[in-house]
Amino acid sequence: MEAITPATRVPIGARRSVVATRRFLERFGLIAALAALPIYYGAHDLISGYPAGFVDGHQVVAHNLTRLGGNLAVGFSNGAIWALIAIGYTLVYGIIELINFAHGDVFMIGSFTSVGLWGSLGLGLTTGVVGLIAGLLVTLVVVMAVCGSLNVLIERVAYRPLRGAPKLAPLITAVGFSFILQNVGLLWLGGSPQGVNDLIRQDHAVFHISGVPIQRGYILALGLTIPLVLGLAWFIGNTRAGRAMRATAQDPEAARLMGINVDATISLTFMLGGMLAGAAGLVYAIYETNVWYFQGFEAGLIAFTAAVMGGIGNVRGAVLGGLIIGVIQALSDARLGPQWTEAVVFGYLIVIMVLRPRGLLGEETREAG
Amino acid sequence: MSELRAQIEEWRAAGRRQVRRLPSWSNRAAVGILIVLGALLPFAFAETSGFLNATIISLAYVVMALGLNIVVGFAGLLDLGYVAFYAIGAYCVGWFGSDFFYKAHLHVGVSHFAGTLPGIHFNFILILVCAVAITSVMGCLIGLPTLRLRGDYIAIVTLAFGEIIGVVAVNGQGINLVDGMTLTAGNLGIPAVDLPYFPIVGTFNLLDLRPWYWLIFVIMLVVLFVNLRVRDSRLGRAWVALREDEVAAVSMGIPLVRTKLLAYATGASFGGMSGAFLGAYFTTVNAGQFAFSFSIFVLAMIIVGGLGSIWGAVFGALLLSYINYYLIPDVLNGLPGDFGLNFSLTQLSFGIFGFLLVIVMVLRPQGLFPERRRALELTEAIAPGGEEGAPVPPT
Questions:
Q1: B77, B79, B357, B380, best to mutate vs chain A, most A CBs in 10 Å
Q2: Which A positions 213-232 lie with beta carbon below 8 A of chain B?
Q3: To pair with A112 at 20 to 30 A between CA atoms, which of A164, A186, A325, A368?
């Protein structure tokens, strides 16, 4: 046995204070860390003010929370897209404990498919409202079907043969498929970002909430995400297939003994994850008005971070993590400069992991049980 | 009880059989012959051949893979941010072996010519020492927040660190240290890094790749030797014990914090050595080199090779880097032209690499050279009471 480390010899009283500090940090540190950015910038805007454009040639300095509100609106709508992708990660992780690296690229294929479909359907800047809505609905259905099937196919080819293999083996096939899909994207639309028709004129403000413009893009992102997430939650909570998914996530062996077709359930999980990724791909293409083959990799990294932040395996956690990351990104983009955003997001992730090692809402995986 | 005793007897007999198979010196002789063959290898190729270039890069990747294998393979801590140590190692060359800090004048053991240049110029060995020191400290720093975490949470926190280091490298141009000298040169890159110089041998140059090969070959041998010795040491066994069952290992008196941090530090220092070599070999340190895909590439090497197995890491690294740096660019790219087809495979290199990864893993999930202990665990977990070393039955 090695010598006892000094830390264990600290007097009991001191230890108690250490424990108290730690408990305090665990309870309030997380809230403090999460609220730090918005509160700091809110206070900054209120006290020092910020330049709010020119009136009659004079610079106007505003002292209100409108700028912060604008940041939050961007953040939540961006976060809604990350949430859709993050659910795919968290569902797959919950059921087979695999970081599905190819998931981000399925999302990318979703974007590409939507852009391709708009071309074939003839959706353009001159399309009327009815045609646009009908066209987008058709695109949504097709894209969800394509991405869902693609995800099922990947599972069948690359992950199912590796059940019972060492835990990290499917991780490598996932990386392999990620490369393959990226190559498909590269051949499809070339190596540089491609502009997409701004079909719905997404930066058109529909209405204002106390000075914060609510753009069409925000409404689309949130208006598609909320029903999809609610629908998914209902499906998992209330249907027979959803119960099979939960049972398989808890214990595949026991689920098999209870007569659940585990393979079909896992396929279904990949199907759902892929469908949500496809929907996210459609929203992303409209919202960002450009697509490129590497977007899936970047989005996948962010979405996976969101899933972990919320507590992996936990669908509500993935949504929460996605929204939080969206807000952090928006704040950092607007205030610190976009070149630091990635570092800020990952810095936040580390802080949250240190304060709450199982994610914000707690994990729901077999290991946790 | 008697069954157990019989089993132990059987194992002892098996052990004796194994020892008796070859005389004890033959192993050493084989190692010696291999080393000599390895040292003579560059004479079989032209001084600037593409194959020699690929071999040098491959050996640098072997060193990386051996380092990551300690963290992921031995200690079972999934590290997705290994690129951080490549970056820091490479920046050590940029900082301590170029005129990047042009206002400083510090020369230690460099050639006469480099001694006249502004900036900090250290001998390459000294740079390696700096790289090892800095990366092992950084390894501990990265390890600290992961101590309470387990499983894939460690993966995401290390990934986060790797990405942060990458972002700092890109934006380091804007970080002012002293007197207008910045931390990094961002995407412009630190150009014209010193070529390694050794007394008697002289300064390396890029028209003769052989000295580079011998340098990385020696580094690789040292790292390999350290790896082999550490694996069987008290520390190495502590790593494996932690990997297998953390609670049991700690209750047996293994100091958790120190053992884990040592794994991070050791793995990181090898990454730093290799990073320093690659920085000098590419003669520029560019922030664009340090992408997440690098970490994945090295991780793929050790998993394809067989996680936790030293020879697996070596062969996995050689295999994947030869595929990436020789097979795809130098061999396959000419093929369509040879068959009279009018397209280039460069556009497909990504996909081919991914396809090969999938094929290898599906055909051999346990890796090419799985560690014996792990192979046993695998077969036991699936077929309890099955024969030792029995093939994995399909599920």
A1: B357
A2: none
A3: A325
The enclosing domain of A209 has a CATH number of 1.10.3470
Chain A residues inside the 8 Å CB shell of B351: 179-180, 182-184
Residue A103 lies in a domain: yes
CB A60 within 8 A of CB A54: yes
Per the structure, how many domains does chain A have?
A: 1
Position with higher pLDDT, B336 vs A190: A190
Question: Is pLDDT at B139 greater than 90 in this prediction?
Answer: yes
pLDDT in tens, B104-134: 778 887 777 777 778 888 888 999 999 999 9
Distance CA A300, CA A318 (A): 13
Q: Under a CB-based contact definition with an 8 Å cutoff, are residues A152 and A267 in contact? A: yes
pLDDT of residue A369: 40
Give me the domain span that covers residue A156: 30-355
Structural domain contains residue A49: yes
| B164 contacts A346? CB cut-off 8 A | yes
* Residue at A350 is within a domain: yes
pTM: 0.84
**Residue A262: inside a domain:** yes
Residue type, A144: M
Instruction: Report the sign of the C-alpha dihedral through residues B163, B165, B168, B173, in that order.
Output: negative
Dump the DSSP string for B202-234. EE-BTTB-HHHHHHHHHHHHHHHHHHHHHHTSH
